[in-house]
Specification:
The complex is a heterodimer of chains A (about 180) and B (about 450).
Chain A: E1 9-14, H1 17-29, E2 35-38, H2 46-49, H3 57-83, H4 100-122, E3 146-151, H5 159-167, E4 173-177
Antiparallel strand pairs in A: 1-3, 1-4, 2-3
Helix pairs in contact in A: 3-4
Chain B: H1 2-11, H2 24-36, H3 42-68, H4 82-107, H5 117-138, H6 164-197, H7 201-211, H8 218-251, H9 263-289, H10 298-328, H11 332-343, H12 347-359, H13 367-370, H14 373-400, H15 415-438, H16 444-457
Helix pairs in contact in B: 2-16, 3-15, 4-5, 4-8, 4-9, 4-14, 5-6, 5-15, 6-7, 6-8, 8-9, 9-10, 9-14, 10-11, 11-12, 12-14
Classes of the chains: A alpha+beta (about 180), B mainly alpha (about 450).
Chain lengths: ~180, ~450
């Protein structure tokens, strides 16, 4: 049985995105894997630097769109041709061209809901508690400061050497993150 | 004449995408301060107070309607569509500019979108809310509005999917849903900013819950941007489909003036035109009241005026083609409709419409006139009036002279029609005032990104 860790990780604060990217790159090169970078706006390529491969989100959106489209069309087909067949305007029961507008709308709806729920789900949001918020200065991560946190769960994590490593990146401050 | 002006403009700091000297920190402070200040500006109270009174007029009008039925409106055979449909089309058209700015301009990588997309999206939501009221109230028995949706019921009946009116239900409800989630997703990082900066405990908790624990992780941003881009790609065809379907409500019928293949593109262009006019109507007072001239610069106003001019020309082309089709089709009913529009009892409105949508926007060709903010404001109001008149002419002139002269009639809105219309203006403005008080009206994180990119380039 592993003991609950006494610390979530150590966090370095940087003043600009270039230093954060350089720091994250060096941390990855030094062999750290369990880490995350935090920034007030999206930075191109930062996720890849810390070892993120690719997201499944487009596939989820495609599946959502297909389900929405097929479901929408089948709903209309089943209603108009099977459960409640009526001749309207001399058209056949399965008058598919007239079903296209609704099929289009349900496709978009399915895909859009999949995009939002998929993004939130993959990101693990909503998340009411997260240790990084224990660092007081982390409030600036949503203003103009940039943070790199190496987590204690990383096999290479060793509090003294990791702090020493982070110090070599010239951060403006270093904090221990309580779990 | 225009050349020197354009040249001077490229050097003029007022025509930058963003004012000089801004950093990510200063942007954050400036925009979040509008929301987090304890003192509500006096102007806000006055504006909200008037809007709130007008909204109460809507409540009175709707209560009277629910008690007495739609006989209180001016609608009757042959003109059974009146204000309810005119205002529905008008409001939903206004909403379209918000989606256009947030989705299409994102896909086209237009940087000037960033400082106007948030409140344009809010405008979309509130306009759709106003639009959605009308068809429901027009049902006569609004309590049964849910019958429009296909749900298994004890009566054993289903909606009729070959009717554009049913397509409309799906189009508008999908549009409202997608606009709402697109807007909310865009807000999440800014809600996190407000959570981190709010001083009051209640505000911190409220923003914190809405931000869902957003912490700006690089991996989260990556998925976030993917989702945002995909949503923009989905919203773009959606916005075109919505007003196309609205136009099919008319075009699928066999009435002269409605039964026309030009309707879908003509309606979509009209929607963007009216929507940009409304964005200008809102942006001009907002930037003055909150001193946002360095964020919503002349560059934005100039570009919006250009989009308005371009789409206005599409719409004007539509008017010319309507007249051309009436002549070229050699259909006596179509020809009669056109003559009746130009010389019949509604001729003054038709000519006013042509002045508002055809002539006045031509002023925007001149860069000098586009540089005048008060003039832009007046033109945007004229365009909104013109687009309302357009829907009035389309709905009323086609219906009021039926094929048989025995079933001709005249239509005008009653005091309750006007009360409902003005009331929805109050609802729209009330929601907008609440929005600018409690949520950031400019996207903070996208502005930070813009500042960063601008700095990298220079």
């Amino acid at each position: 049985m592993k003991q609950a860790p006494l610390i979530y990780g150590v966090m370095a604060e940087f003043e600009n995105p270039e230093m954060l990217c350089a720091g994250a790159e060096r941390a990855h090169a030094a062999g750290y894997r369990r880490m995350d970078a935090y920034s007030p706006f999206p930075i191109d390529g930062l996720a890849e630097v810390i070892g993120f491969k690719r997201t499944q989100l487009p596939l989820i959106v495609l599946i959502g769109g297909l389900l929405g489209g097929i479901g929408g069309f089948y709903l209309q087909y089943w209603i108009s041709a099977i459960d409640y067949p009526m001749i309207i305007g001399g058209k056949p029961y399965n008058s598919w061209p007239a079903f296209i507008p609704v099929t289009f709308e349900t496709t978009i709806l399915g895909a859009a809901l999949a995009a939002v729920l998929g993004m939130l789900g993959l990101n693990g949001l909503p998340m009411p508690y997260h240790p990084v918020f224990n660092v007081e200065r982390f409030a600036l991560a949503s203003r103009d400061r940039f943070f790199l946190c190496i987590e204690a769960a990383d096999p290479k994590f060793e509090i003294d050497t990791t702090v020493e490593f982070l110090r070599s990146l010239n951060p403006s401050s270093i904090h221990e993150v309580e779990p | 004449m225009t050349e020197p002006v354009t040249e001077a403009r490229t050097r003029d700091p007022r025509y930058e995408v963003i004012g000089p000297g801004h950093t990510p920190g200063s942007i954050t402070d400036k925009i979040s301060e509008i929301v987090l200040t304890r003192k509500t500006p006096k102007g806000w109270w006055i504006g909200f107070g008037i809007s709130f009174l007008l909204m109460n007029l809507l409540f009175v009008a709707v209560a009277h309607l629910l008690m007495n039925g739609i006989g209180i409106w001016g609608v009757n055979v042959p003109v059974a569509w009146g204000f309810a449909i005119i205002n529905f089309v008008w409001w939903i058209g206004i909403g379209h500019a918000g989606t256009l700015i947030s989705a299409i301009l994102l896909l086209l990588r237009q940087r000037w979108r960033t400082s106007i997309n948030r409140f344009a999206e809010a405008m979309t939501l509130f306009a759709v809310a106003c639009a959605g009221l009308y068809p429901i109230l027009h049902l006569g028995r609004p309590g049964f509005a849910y019958w429009l949706f296909p749900y298994p019921n004890t009566m054993g009946v289903w909606p009729q999917f070959r009717s554009p009116l049913v397509w409309d239900v799906f189009a508008v409800s999908t549009y409202a849903t997608v606009s709402l989630i697109f807007w909310y997703i865009g807000l999440i990082p800014d809600l996190a900013t407000l959570r981190d900066r709010a001083r009051h405990r209640f505000a911190r908790m409220a923003y914190g819950m809405l931000a869902m624990g957003w912490r700006g992780s690089a991996v989260h941003w990556h998925r976030y941007e993917t989702a945002y881009l995909l949503l923009a790609g989905l919203a773009t065809p959606l916005v075109v489909s919505v007003h196309s379907i609205v136009s099919l409500d008319f075009a699928v019928s066999v009435l002269p003036g409605w039964h026309s293949t030009i309707f879908p593109p003509y309606f979509v262009a009209g929607a963007i035109y009216a929507g940009f006019a409304m964005v200008l109507t809102l942006a001009i007072p907002l930037r003055a009241a909150y001193r946002l001239e360095d964020l919503i610069t002349m560059h934005h106003l100039d570009n919006m005026a250009k989009v308005m001019l371009t789409t206005g020309l599409f719409v004007f082309y539509g008017y010319i083609m309507e007249a051309f089709f009436a002549w070229y089709s050699a259909n006596p009913n179509e020809a009669y409709l056109m003559t009746n529009r130009a010389t019949g009892p509604y001729a003054p409105m038709y000519w006013l419409l042509l002045i508002c949508n055809g002539l006045v926007p031509q002023l925007l060709w001149s860069p000098r006139l586009r540089a005048s903010v008060p003039l832009l404001f007046v033109i945007s109001l004229v365009v909104s009036l013109g687009m309302w008149l357009e829907r009035y002419i389309i709905v009323v002139t086609s219906l009021h002279r039926d094929f048989l002269p025995s079933s001709w009639g005249m239509y005008s809105g009653t005091i309750w029609d006007w009360a409902t219309f003005i009331g929805t203006l109050g609802l729209f403005l009330s929601l907008l005032f609440l929005f600018i008080r409690v949520l950031p009206m400019i996207s903070i994180f996208e502005m930070r990104e813009l500042v960063h990119e601008e700095r990298e380039e220079s």
